[in-house]
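Structure first, sequence second, as always.
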């Protein structure tokens, strides 16, 4: 137990160490990086802070060692034990309209997978619309939230990634999960992982603002965990059996059931592999 506590102490997030992993160009576009020891939700804090930011060029990042009210898609609880994983929210104001942001969650997943691949020597697969997988186990998730006004669209991209979490942690997760350390059988430097994640989000911002989801679509198809897989899909209050036939140009899931195609948008479907 003492050894575990010492490991956690060495793994505390450090602003200077995180920034070492950013390119000079991306570092210049980040106006602030804050690390909280404990917070309710990094996304909620980012939303509060975003309301005070007026400059469209500014972006900022919020990390936390632990979240008391971390959440995923559809308000589901996101397990956030202390000093083990990465809990990050990246935010900026955009001139893009909400309709222009279709596919942002998928694009985020692609950017993260590509930026971590050289370190991991393995690609993180993507389970539509916002989960990151290693083999058949969930290792991370993405929560994109937007807030519109007449002059701007506030964007918050939340990322949770299991890094050092082990089976010893008293967490309640209702699906198969893993962490980088569990899967690869070794420890990882959380500051390095945090920096690589932030670098991917800073690059995502510039690429998505300029080119939208089209910039990432082909790469998503290569990383799509469910492509051509038989699945159970729950939508419109019913559970249907079929297979996934890819995604549309807008990031909708193409689900085929008995020869009929359904085009499913974010927030409408819960997928469970058979």
């Amino acid at each position: 137990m003492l050894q575990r506590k010492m490991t956690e102490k060495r793994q505390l997030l450090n602003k200077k160490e995180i920034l070492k992993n950013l390119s000079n160009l991306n570092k210049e576009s980040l106006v602030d990086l804050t690390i909280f020891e404990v917070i309710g939700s990094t996304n909620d804090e980012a939303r509060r802070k975003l309301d005070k930011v007026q400059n469209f060029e500014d972006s900022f990042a919020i990390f936390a060692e632990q979240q008391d009210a971390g959440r995923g898609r559809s308000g589901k609880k996101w397990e956030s034990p202390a000093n083990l994983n990465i809990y990050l929210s990246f935010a900026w104001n955009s001139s893009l309209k909400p309709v222009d942001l279709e596919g942002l969650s998928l694009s985020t997943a692609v950017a993260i997978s590509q930026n971590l691949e050289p370190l991991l020597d393995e690609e993180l697969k993507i389970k539509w619309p916002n989960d990151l997988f290693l083999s058949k186990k969930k290792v991370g998730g993405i929560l994109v939230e937007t807030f519109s006004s007449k002059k701007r669209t506030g964007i918050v991209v939340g990322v949770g990634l299991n890094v050092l979490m082990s089976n010893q942690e008293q967490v309640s997760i209702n699906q198969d999960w893993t962490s980088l350390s569990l899967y690869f059988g070794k420890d990882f430097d959380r500051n390095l992982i945090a920096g690589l994640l932030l670098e991917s989000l800073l690059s995502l911002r510039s690429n998505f603002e300029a080119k939208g989801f089209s910039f990432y679509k082909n790469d998503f198809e290569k990383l799509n965990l469910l492509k051509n897989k038989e699945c159970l899909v729950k939508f419109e209050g019913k559970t249907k059996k079929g297979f996934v036939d890819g995604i549309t140009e807008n990031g909708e899931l193409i689900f085929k059931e008995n020869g009929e195609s359904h085009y499913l948008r974010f927030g409408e479907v819960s997928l469970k592999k058979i």
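Margin note: Residues 126 and 210 are 23 Å apart (CA to CA).
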